[in-house]
From TrEMBL:
Catalyzed reactions per annotation: (4aS,6R)-4a-hydroxy-L-erythro-5,6,7,8-tetrahydrobiopterin = (6R)-L-erythro-6,7-dihydrobiopterin + H2O
Keyword Nucleotide-binding attached: no
Family, similarity comment: Belongs to the pterin-4-alpha-carbinolamine dehydratase family.
EC nos: 4.2.1.96
Stored Pfam families: Pterin_4a (PF01329)
Name used for this protein in its record: Putative pterin-4-alpha-carbinolamine dehydratase
Keyword Lyase in record: yes
UniProt-listed GO biological process terms: tetrahydrobiopterin biosynthetic process
Lineage: Bacteria, Pseudomonadati, Balneolota, Balneolia, Balneolales
Organism: Fodinibius roseus
Keywords, in A-Z order: Lyase
UniProt cross-references to Gene3D superfamilies, sorted A to Z: Transcriptional coactivator/pterin dehydratase (3.30.1360.20)
Highest taxon of the lineage: Bacteria
Alphabetical list of HAMAP family matching this protein: Pterin_4_alpha
Length: 96
């Protein structure tokens, strides 16, 4: 089981993740694309990384936007290092 991060740890980690925010025991961000196809391609790339990390995000998509939220179920729905690691991975996919 993963240990929840403290509020200070989350705040410190998010300094390296522009646009990500912490609220409701999750870290989240909205990503915008030129069109639906690009948004879905992003979601597909995330799916492969999430499977590799055995950690799965909440994903909500409408046309060219993708909202991602991360928390760790086996830590009581709190933010853990697993969430920060996946957020960094997602951010790298978006920037490539």
């Amino acid at each position: 089981m993963a240990d929840p991060l403290s509020l200070d740890e989350i705040t410190r980690q998010l300094e390296d993740l522009p646009g990500w925010e912490h609220k409701n025991d999750k870290v989240s961000k909205e990503f915008t694309f030129e069109n639906f196809r690009d948004a879905m391609g992003f979601i597909t790339r995330i799916s492969y990384e999430a499977e590799e990390q055995v950690h799965h995000p909440e994903i909500f998509n409408v046309y060219n936007t993708v909202d991602i939220s991360l928390s760790t179920h086996d830590a009581g729905g709190k933010v853990t290092e697993k969430d920060i690691t996946l957020a960094k991975t997602i951010e790298s996919l978006y920037n490539n």
